[in-house]
C-alpha cells in the first residue's frame, strides 16, 4: 500500500499493515464478522443515505461511473464505494463528489480498528466498515454501493434495504469463492436482492437469468431486465434506452466499446427505476445527456496520454489501457478493439500480465486473428501473478505470435523491433493491478 501522511503524522500504510494482520488464516465468506462490527460501531449501515446496490461480474465500475455522472449533472451529492483501487486506496471512497481525504480516512479506519478490538476480520470487511462510518457521517443525496466479491456474503450486504438493486452481466470469475458455474455465481450475485426492492438486471445468459428470477420471485422483488422490460442500443451513433415509460435518446458514451453502450443503458434504467421509489431522484433529461457524455472510469479502454511510460514507445504508437482479466472481459475488449480497427486500421499489439487465479487462455482467445503480437509481462508487486512464459504459452495456443518482456516499459521499448506501418495500436491489459501500476508510472493518477 502507498504511504499517505495523515493528521498526527501517522501514515495510512501503517494502519493498513495492522489491519492486514487481523485477516483470518482462511477466508470464509460470511457476514458474521461484519454484523458484529456494525453493532459495535452503532450500526452506521442503518444511517446511510438512500442507496443503489450494484453486483455483477463485469461492468460494475463503469455502470456506477455512469450513474454518478448523471446524478452529479442533476446537482445531487453522491457518495460512491468501489473496489479495488488502481493507485491509492482513497479511490474506493468518494464523499459527496470528492475522494476521501487522508485525515478523514485515517480517523474512520482508527474508529473501526478500535471497535473491532483485535478480533479476526478481513481487510475488505474492516475498510468497508470505515467507509460506512464516513457515508453515515457526511450528508449526501444517494450512495452508489458496489459489491466487493459475490454479493450474498459480501461485506456490503449488511445493508437492509435499497432504492434499487443492480446486477450487471454475470460470467465466470473468482471460482474459488463463488462456484464453478455461471448458475452458482449468479446465485451469489442475486444475494443482494432485497424483499420488495426493485432490481435492474443487465444482459444475462439463460442460466444466470433463471437463478436471478427465482431469487427475485422468492423476495417479491420486481425485475426490470435488459432485453425484456427495457432495451439499450446504439442507433446512428446515439444511445437509445427504451422501457414501458418511454424512450430516451442520448449521446454515445465517451467510454469506448460496444459494452459501454449496455453499461450506460443499465445505469440510465437503474436511475429511472430508483426515481419511482424516491421522487427526488426523478432526474431532468439534461442530466442523463450530460452524465452519459461526461462519465469517465480509469483503466477501462483508457487512451493513455503523454507520460514517462508512453514516451518509451516508438513515435506514433497509440497506447490503450484496460483492467479486463476474465473471459467476458476479453470478449468485450476484443469487440471494442475490432470496432476501433474498422474505423481506424492499425496493427494491434497486446501487452498482458495476469494473476495466477485467472484463466489466461480464456481471456486471450477472443484476440485470435485480431492481434498481431502478444508480449507477456509480470504483474508488478507482491501479487501472485502468472509468469510471462505461462501467459505467452496461453497466447501461442490460440495462434498469437507471443514473446515475453520483464516489464511494460521494456515491452514498449521492444516495439522498435517490430517495424510496421502504420504504427501499432497497443493494448495493455490482463489485470487491474497491472493497470494501476501503469497509471502510476505514467503519472495518470485517478481523481
UniProtKB/TrEMBL annotation:
Residues in domain Mur ligase central? Answer: 54-269
Cellular component annotations (GO), alphabetically ordered = cytoplasm
- Write down the EC number: 6.3.2.12, 6.3.2.17
GO BP annotation list: folic acid biosynthetic process
Q: Which UniProt keywords apply?
A: ATP-binding, Folate biosynthesis, Ligase, Magnesium, Metal-binding, Nucleotide-binding
Q: Which family does it belong to?
A: Belongs to the folylpolyglutamate synthase family.
According to its UniProt record, in which pathway does this protein act?
A: Cofactor biosynthesis; tetrahydrofolylpolyglutamate biosynthesis; Cofactor biosynthesis; tetrahydrofolate biosynthesis; 7,8-dihydrofolate from 2-amino-4-hydroxy-6-hydroxymethyl-7,8-dihydropteridine diphosphate and 4-aminobenzoate: step 2/2
Alphabetically, the GO molecular function entries are:
ATP binding; dihydrofolate synthase activity; metal ion binding; tetrahydrofolylpolyglutamate synthase activity
Write down the chemical reaction(s) this protein catalyses: 7,8-dihydropteroate + L-glutamate + ATP = 7,8-dihydrofolate + ADP + phosphate + H(+); (6S)-5,6,7,8-tetrahydrofolyl-(gamma-L-Glu)(n) + L-glutamate + ATP = (6S)-5,6,7,8-tetrahydrofolyl-(gamma-L-Glu)(n+1) + ADP + phosphate + H(+); 10-formyltetrahydrofolyl-(gamma-L-Glu)(n) + L-glutamate + ATP = 10-formyltetrahydrofolyl-(gamma-L-Glu)(n+1) + ADP + phosphate + H(+); (6R)-5,10-methylenetetrahydrofolyl-(gamma-L-Glu)(n) + L-glutamate + ATP = (6R)-5,10-methylenetetrahydrofolyl-(gamma-L-Glu)(n+1) + ADP + phosphate + H(+)
NCBIfam families the UniProt entry points to? folC
Q: Domain Mur ligase C-terminal spans what residues?
A: 315-431
Function as written in the Swiss-Prot or TrEMBL entry: Functions in two distinct reactions of the de novo folate biosynthetic pathway. Catalyzes the addition of a glutamate residue to dihydropteroate (7,8-dihydropteroate or H2Pte) to form dihydrofolate (7,8-dihydrofolate monoglutamate or H2Pte-Glu). Also catalyzes successive additions of L-glutamate to tetrahydrofolate or 10-formyltetrahydrofolate or 5,10-methylenetetrahydrofolate, leading to folylpolyglutamate derivatives.
Q: Which Pfam families does UniProt cross-reference here?
A: Mur_ligase_C, Mur_ligase_M
> What organism does this protein naturally occur in?
Ancylobacter defluvii
- According to the UniProt record, what class of enzyme is this? ligase
Transmembrane regions:
none
Q: Which domain of life is it from?
A: Bacteria
What name does the UniProt record give this protein? Dihydrofolate synthase/folylpolyglutamate synthase
Q: Which cofactor does it need?
A: Mg(2+)
Task: Tell me yes or no: is ATP-binding among this UniProt entry's keywords.
Answer: yes
Write the lineage as a comma-separated list: Bacteria, Pseudomonadati, Pseudomonadota, Alphaproteobacteria, Hyphomicrobiales
* Gene3D superfamilies, sorted: Mur ligase, C-terminal domain, Mur-like, catalytic domain
Q: Which PROSITE patterns match?
A: FOLYLPOLYGLU_SYNT_2
